[in-house]
């Protein structure tokens, strides 16, 4: 599998990275057998996927543990990206958080260490400067951020040579197209697109809002009346499920699986360095990997853009997929 360079870091990643939130099970995803998770990691390696994204927050570190077990002796052939949670972002806690992740991952270095979400009280400069100090010790190779808008990215770049910005980006959530992608490109910051399948919506498995569990329906796509939401919006369920129907027709007519089309749409965007596609079974990771060889025509891409434009327009430039008052600026 051809690799792509991650911003200005010199690190090369497979165009598809395996997202490891789901392999920890628990909240949102439900029970997950550890053997299934390890088999999924091994299947990813067999498919040429050599980059993996996890976080200390995912199942209280269990996702990192499983990833470490799954990679085993092949760790040196891979790129591991993980993230620090807000509770550990003060300068006196950063190195201890990194050491804990290293232990869980069973490795002596992390390739890309990222701020997961900004804390409203702790200065990002404080956190990033502490991360750079640990980088100088060789425990991490590159520093990254997640969920940073243009202004926040400027602040981050004043304190660190930021290699990547991980952003929610898919056919249904295109807020980053308004400004953030251009900001990343201008500053040579790689873009890692997470949630490429919109938590399953873009696979076509759901045909109406009621098909989606309340755990998944916390996004701004859905009505604020759904349990667990933290936004105050009416959602855009009508627009989303109309688009799903139209995409199903388009993909069926052309013989292209919808999920692969959604991933390929991102892969063919030169603003995107890599796509983080979550998987919980070997079958899922093999299916995702097939998108690498799928080349969408310009007409097909234009039709996908047109079908999903009403959702983009309804959600607007707010790049926070969960909250009305955006944490991304």
Question: How would you summarize this macromolecular structure in one to three sentences?
Answer:
By secondary structure, this protein is of the alpha/beta class. The protein contains ten helices and ten strands. 36% of the residues lie in helices and 14% in strands.
Over the alpha carbons, how many angstroms does the gyration radius reach? 19 Å
Low-confidence stretches: none
Instruction: Name the helix and strand elements from N-terminus to C-terminus, one letter apiece.
Output: EEEHEHEHEHEHEHEHHEHH
β content, as a range? Answer: 5-15%
How many beta-strand elements? 10
Helix and strand composition category: alpha/beta
**Tally of DSSP helical segments:** 10
If you had to describe this structure to a student in words, what would you say it looks like?
The longest helix has 18 residues, at 237-254. The strands form 2 sheets. The protein has an 8-stranded parallel beta barrel, surrounded by 5 helices. A two-stranded antiparallel sheet has the order 1-2. It starts with a strand and ends in a 14-residue tail after the last helix. Helix 1 (34-46) packs parallel to helix 9 (282-289). Helices cover 36% and strands 14% of the residues. It is α/β, with parallel strands linked by helices and 329 residues long.
